[in-house]
Amino acid sequence: MSKQILIVDDSASIRQMLSFTLKAAGYLVDEAVDGRDGLGKAQSKAYNLVFTDQNMPNMDGLSLIRSLRGLPGYRATPILMLTTESSDAMKQQGKSAGATGWLVKPFDPPKLLEVTRKVLP
């Protein structure tokens, strides 16, 4: 069975590049335009992995992670931050919120797939 991945990012071009990379590797992908949209989709469908940006309107990435971690179905689901934020302080906030890992934009497709394979069972 193919793995379901949710991409949450307010940038259409980033969502498109991520989606293309992941679909080409055989994953099933849904997209959300911000944290609120992503949370709604995650509440109506089970995902095996969530990628989220940090800086988005309506709900940022850290708030989304905290909200997802509060849902029974997402306590152990890998959640990867994919953002331009790279400070150690921000990474620590991500870890505290429950992020599984941190990737900095722009992303390298082979590296993205390597990390994806590592976190998906």
Automatic annotation (TrEMBL):
Coiled coil: none
InterPro entries: Bact_response_regulator (IPR050595), CheY-like_superfamily (IPR011006), Sig_transdc_resp-reg_receiver (IPR001789)
This protein's UniProt keywords: Phosphoprotein
GO aspect biological process, one term: phosphorelay signal transduction system
Transmembrane residue ranges: none
Location of the Response regulatory domain: 4-120
Modified residues (4-aspartylphosphate): 53
Pfam families: Response_reg
Name assigned to this protein: Chemotaxis protein CheY
Species per Swiss-Prot/TrEMBL record: Metapseudomonas resinovorans NBRC 106553
Organism taxonomic ancestry: Bacteria, Pseudomonadati, Pseudomonadota, Gammaproteobacteria, Pseudomonadales
Record gene name: cheY
